[in-house]
Amino acid sequence: MANLNLSTRVRIGILLATIAIIAAAGVFLWQSTANRQRQLVYEIPPGTAARLAAGEEVNIFPSTIVIDLRYHDTLIIQNNDSAEVTIGPFRIVPGQRFVQRYWNPGTYELICSVHQGEQLRIEVR
After folding, report:
1. pTM of this structure
2. 105 pLDDT above the threshold of 90
3. Residue 68 CB partners (closer than 8 Å, separation 6+)
4. Count of CB atoms within 10 A of residue 75's CB?
5. What is the pLDDT of residue 5?
């Protein structure tokens, strides 16, 4: 290394510093995407209970909600109707926001007062 002139040493230093910065940025980006959460948000709009009482078909949820553990999915149900909603053992009052995280794979068949056939299926993968 004693034979290297100053400009070569400076270039090597700049190159090493650049590599270190790129590596640090890569680790930061990887970590931020690895910890990212997805939110599956469903809104029960105003007038839903009245539409159901009138015999209308209401499609708020898909036939099956798929929760992906790789993305740390969170299920969020916002009740903006004037009537309470039942989903599984939970009652969601008007204006309430229901937040549910799942930690283990499985299939859940829940009673749902606003879903066709009053059944809601949640698959956790």
Report:
1. 0.69
2. yes
3. 38, 125
4. 18
5. 65
